[in-house]
Amino acid sequence: MIPTDDARLTAIGLLMEVHSGLTSKMTPAFAESGLSEVDFETLIRLARSPERQLRMSDLAAQTSLSTSGVTRVVDRLEREGLVRRVACASDRRASYATLTEDGLARLQTVLPKHLEDIETWFTGLLTPAQLETLLDTLRVIRDVVRPCATAGADVPAQVTPARS
Predict the structure, then answer these.
(1) Which one, of 151, 157, 156, lies nearest residue 89 by Cα?
(2) Model-level pTM?
(3) What residues contact residue 142 under an 8 Å CB cut-off, 6+ apart?
């Protein structure tokens, strides 16, 4: 007999339903600002990183995109002037994705609505204690299933502008 009433199935099902529902509620704000979900994730991760930059490999690890996937996203964002590639001064093989002032401005256009959506559809539904417990719980799970999710977040970067 299949254990269809197993709490593990309920837990993962609820998590997937919540993710799907939140994505559908938040995607319109990104689209209004001319961003996809992955564009927003890339820009916000850069904005929240030291000096607003990450090594390309760390950005790939944080977003769970492949190296070529993050390269395509950064290429597109660079063409739009939202991100700039910067060579690493200490390792010629490495480069950094750096948020530009235009990229920061684009984020500033979407963040008020995004934060409103988060409050309306997610954090505002929880008490402060529930939110703190949820954040602690999510970090425990994230640290096991995505140990690279904070890659490069606290590493000071030494970069020089890339030459064209």
Answers:
(1) 157
(2) 0.83
(3) 149
Q: Is 71 exposed, middle or buried (0-12, 13-18, 19+ CB in 10 A)?
A: middle
∠ CA 142-144-146, nearest 5°, is 55
CA dist list (Å): 149 to 21, 61, 106: 23, 6, 24
Q: What is the pLDDT of residues 59-101, one digit of tens each?
A: 998 887 888 999 999 999 999 999 999 988 888 788 999 999 9
